[in-house]
Amino acid sequence: MEYGYIYIALACAIGLWMTWGVGANDLANIMSTTMGSKAVSVKQALIIAIVFEIMGAFLGGGEVSDTIRGGIIEPSVFANTPHLFIFGMLSVLLAGATWMTIASFLGMPVSITNAIVGSLVGVGAIMLGVHAVHWQEVGYIAISWIVSPTLAGVVAFILFITIKRLILGVEQPLQAAERYVPIYLFVVGIILAMMTTLKGLNHFHVNFNIFQKIGVVVITALLVLALGMYAIKKIRSKLKFKLNRHTQFQYIESMFSVLMAFTACAMVFAHGSNDVAIAVGPIAGIISLVLNGEPMQDGWMLSGIMLFGCMGVILGLTMYGRKVIETVGSAITTLTPSRAFAATLAAASTVVASTSTGIPVSATQTLVGAVFGVGLARGIDALNLNVIRNIIMSWVITIPAAAGMATFFFYILKIVFR
Fold it and tell me: Which of 1, 40, 77, 400 is most deeply packed, by most CB within 10 A?
């Protein structure tokens, strides 16, 4: 193919820029509750981000990558014009990278899912005709944009209400925490097992029956419970004085910091399995088409592209994630470890449940919805409605902006490579 290696070089360069933007915006948003609540140190947060982002991309991202590469636009329309597919994917990458950079500069947590899907729809419908778009698939994705943050918000609201009534609002909060925190730890272990252990086993084609799966989940949950209780015991051993009511709450929040660390692992894994796969989908399609003549090849090549995407995402978080972390982690509502735990656990459960179906939901929108739910549980006055309004406006603008940018870049590429 003429210009084949130039196309690959462009895909990698623009893809690195876009994954950098995903890290500066999407992953920063994912880490915002953890870092905004000061549940873990910056060093611990970076370790969690690196390890579980890579694990999520490799063990859980294949289905979503397939949806992005071939589920939005019908690949057969490019059978006689493969260069149009490449121009379209490069346009999608350029539009996504540009929009994510602008949003990160403004500190607005926008969705790479919205940007990529909007770009694909724009290129497909305007350049190739409405028949080239799988509108049913787009409809499922669009519904998920509404349902996922709403569901996460409801779950977070209910979860934080239970924490308030069972622990924070009773006369003996420390005794209540020591009674209920192990239960929360066990629940987190179950969700972590369903997200990571079972997905990892599926990735290696290990098929268990229902009883074996239950056994794996229970064992993983017990391991998380043991590790969590050990960490809490170490925190308690450092306290050399009798706890009054004020210091009891400080200790309780430290206990929730341990819970928050586990839920952060789950949410980052969810982000890796969803958003990294979305970001590298167009890159994989271009490279596979140039080298194999087919945009849907998998195997070692996709694994290498996933690792490449993870590197860009982590660089973006460390270099420019501060603004989005501040917006979601402190500007919507004030977060403590207990509030952040409720929000992150609700969001992680929602994202991974959706990802398992192969439908790319937005981790950004889901977590913001969950943070909103936690704030609402404290009363409407606990929410910064101006910030929420600006975030929702940025979400609405993302789709048409990305579609318009992608169309513009498509025309430019056709002129340059004609």
Answer: 40
Place of tokens 């698939």: 137
Query: Please, are residues 22 and 97 in contact by the beta-carbon 8 Å criterion?
Result: no
**For residue 296, how many other CB atoms are within 10 A of its CB?**
14
Alpha-carbon span 100 to 374, nearest angstrom: 26
Token couple for 266: 């789950």
CA angle 408, 146, 361 (to 5 degrees): 65
358: left (phi over 0), alpha (psi -120 to 50) or beta: left
Residue 44: Cβ-neighbour burial (10 angstroms; 0-12, 13-18, 19+): middle
Distance from C-alpha of 333 to C-alpha of 29, rounded to nearest angstrom: 14
Q: How far apart are CA 363 and CA 268, in angstroms?
A: 9
Alpha-carbon gap, residue 160 to 183, rounded angstroms: 14
| Cβ burial, residue 389 (10 Å; 0-12/13-18/19+) | exposed
pTM for the whole structure: 0.84
DSSP secondary structure letter of residue 133: B
Which residues does residue 30 pair with via DSSP β-bridges, in sequence order? none
Predicted confidence (pLDDT) per residue in 61-86, tens digit: 655 555 555 555 655 656 567 788 88
Contact call for residues 316 and 21 (beta carbons, < 8 A): yes
Would the CA dihedral through 26, 150, 63, 98 be positive or negative? negative
Residues 331-371 pLDDT 10s? 888 889 999 999 988 887 787 676 566 555 677 788 889 99
CB 279 within 8 A of CB 7: no
Give the DSSP letter string of 72-86. Answer: SB-GGGGSS-HHHHH
* Rounded alpha-carbon distances, angstroms, from residue 225 to 88, 182, 200: 48, 7, 20
